[in-house]
Amino acid sequence: MGPGQRFRTDAQLAAFAGVAPLEVSSAGRTRHRLNRGGNRRLNAILHRIAVVQARCSPAAQAYLARRRADGKSPREALRALKRFLIRAVWRAWQQCAPDGATVHCLNDPARLAA
Asked: Does any domain span residue 3?
């Protein structure tokens, strides 16, 4: 059971991590809020990564700016960034091929760049 084998879709991984959006509707307005369930340690790690990327990464800053331009609040934009990050983890896991008991892909930049 290597990385990516436990979850069939990125949505399952996002739900496990607690970054899948939950719909909250009131008075005809549909919004999404952060899921308070899931693996809190993984969620905390993703939060730290998202905050650092929001500060230091031009690509993440552009992503957040696009979400803000779409009318999302800063918290909603950060939630979207965390979901974006979990999709990136999912894609990296899908490119990994188990080789015996170890997985040789996380140190190979050529596989992650694809």
From this structure: no
Q: Is residue 42 part of a domain?
A: yes
Structure tokens at 100: 């015996």
Residues β-bridged to residue 99: 102
Range of the domain at 63: 10-113
Looking at the DSSP bridge assignments, the partners of residue 98 are 103
**C-alpha pair distances (Å), 73 with each of 20, 31, 32, 67, 95:** 17, 11, 11, 8, 33
Q: For the beta carbon of residue 106, count every other beta carbon within 10 angstroms.
A: 12
Three-state DSSP state, 25: strand
More confident residue, 114 or 84: 84
This prediction has a pTM of: 0.74
Q: 72-86: per-residue pLDDT in tens?
A: 889 889 989 999 999
